[in-house]
Write a structure and sequence with these properties.
The protein is built from twelve helices and twelve strands. It has a four-stranded antiparallel sheet, with no helix packed on it. A two-stranded antiparallel sheet has the order 1-2. The N and C termini lie far apart (90 Å). 61% of the residues lie in helices and 15% in strands. It is an alpha+beta fold and 540 residues long.
Length: 540
Amino acid sequence: MKRGAKYLASGFTVRLSSLKSTGSERIVIPAEAGIQDGHELMGPALLLAGEMKVIREKIIGLTICGIVTLALAGCVSSERFYGDVSLSRNAAYRQWKNRKERQERSQPYISGKLTIKDCLKLALGNNKVLQRVVQEKEVARGERLKSYSAVLPTIGLSGEYRRLDRVTSFEIDTPGGKETVAFGDPDNYSAGLRVTQPIFAGGSIPGRVNAAKLLSLLTDETVRAAVQDVVYAAENAYYHVLLSQHLVQISADAVRSAQAHLDNVKQRQQGGVASDFDVLRAEVELSNFQAELIQNRNAINVAKANLIKVMGVSQDSDFVLSDELIYVPSEMTMEQAVEIAYRNRPDLFSREFDIKMQMELLKVARSRYWPSISGYYDNTWSKPDPHSMMDIEWGHAWQAGVTAMLPIFDGLTRDGEIIEQKARVKQAQIDLIDAEETTLFELTKALLSIQDAEEFVQSQRLNLTRAQEGLRLAEVGYKEGTNTQVEMIDAQAALTKARVLHYQAIYSHLTAKLDLQKAMGTLTKDGSARRAQTSAVSIK
């Protein structure tokens, strides 16, 4: 049993004897303590009772600390999260329902004439998909900053307060009597500063930095691809609205012509020249053109809503497209298209950067077979003095050195990571080959579509001229009585169909050229894609 230790029991102090004894040790309680002289209390039972009390107190303290820690950590149930999201959705619905609040939202309201250039500016400045993709640049910037931790030192401060239940002590004889000397103090304070500098990590340090740089470049190409997607979607939607406008105009002209023809037939009926069947036939033809007009008006509303969504402006916007569907022949060979695509397509650049990044990550995985070396510096201020526990005063100590660690066996983690990373390198290489094959397919498809659309436009130009002349001759013949009403109606329907096909041919040619530009990666020029991600358009 330890000698020189003190224990508190039943309100009096029991000091173990420092004399050697044979057999079991006993604690003899003086008679003046209130217990009959000669009675003895066995030491182990008293010590066991005291230790059990201390253990119970520690368990209760730890339980209370755990409950407080969970409360301070902010643990929230799944139902609480779901309730918060439901409240957010309800608030969003009320905001949408209130028209005044909707107009005060960040979406710009546009009116008047809208050119295709203004359309692209609005789309690049307000499109939500593009705004989300642009945030990937911040993610890459954060990863790049994190990679510098492999090179830069780490500096940390620490502080601690510790209360001991007892300290080791002993008694010495002095001229003034017995004096107790303690090794330490129940109240311990310390504060430390530690600096660690990586020196060597088997190639992991440059590998991590280079991988972060390549991730940033890959993200730039991802943003550039997203910009081209938005430009493609905006131009395609713009051309679709233009086509729908022409189709509505054609249907409206057809309705007016059918209405005029019906009025003419009714006048001829009153003169006894036309029959009731002629009137009924003209009414049926008018109803058919009116049905087409209704369908085309609905189509243009849907097309405008899609264009508004792509531009990211308010759905209440009221504008008119000012550009026209114009046919401009295209001259591009397959070899020229492939050369341009291989030098500009963002997905090809992304695949190249991905291969290089995966190779750097493979270097990082292999570095775990090498030792890691780092230097350190520790500075400590503590009470009692770190150099002498018997000096109950603030003291200071420091140490510096170099540490090296060579992993011998890590449960096959390194082997697994290398196998995984080699597979990722192979996947990236396959992705590059697939992207090149996809590029060739898209270029071939776009060039064939342009060729077909050009032939379609040429044929419909001639067909439109013929249909216009046919309607003119039918109207003259009908007035002179040499053509029937059926021939008149057929000529009108043929002209309407020829006009529709003419504009559809031009629209097909424009979209085919747009497909070719996207396949070549030239929807944005001279690096404007990188600048477009920060552009903003304010239109009141």
